[in-house]
Amino acid sequence: ESQKTLMEGMGAIKVRSQGLMNFTQAYRKLTRIPNPVLQQVKVKGFLNQIETLFRPVVEKAGVKFSITALEENSLLIDQDLMQQVIINLLKNALEAVEQQSGSIDLIYSVNEEGQSVLEIRDNGKGIPEEIAEQIFIPFYTTKEDGSGIGLSLARQIIQLHGGSLHFKSNQESTIFIIKL
User: 36-75 pLDDT, tens per residue?
Assistant: First the structure.
């Protein structure tokens, strides 16, 4: 009986230890964002790279995916960090849409203030109002296997570029908006 209790206790310790290790790794990622190495990057070439990486995933899911660059400009960005942000937002959009009938659009434009604007739009179920205020909080997640660092990390990277990340959502769509 005491051996059984001991084994159950050891199992609980093992599970908790793994949880703490996962937490520590997620926290490290969040606190060790490298300073951006800014370079002038052509918008269309940058978006084409993202399309090359992401297109096979959306095609496999049967989701419509489009990229539109309304203007040809250069962005002063750390290409690797910004690519990480956009891919994360696209993956979130893919999880939000229905397979076979979903659509995701990545749109680049310049607003009236001269800011570069990247929008990731999806026709998914939207972000419920009750969690909307919390999605950028580190370690907050609604996903079973999520770490809760993706959107927080994305926002920090955008802020390191001198920009902003926010969203608009309703029951039929969500738009994440990056302004640089």
Answer: 889 999 999 999 999 998 989 999 999 999 999 977 899 9
Residue 81 sits at the vertex; the CA angle it makes with 75 and 85, to the nearest 5 degrees, is: 90
Q: For the whole model, what pTM was predicted?
A: 0.78
Do 88 and 59 meet the contact criterion of CB atoms below 8 Å apart? no
Backbone angles phi, psi at 19, to 5 degrees: -60, -40
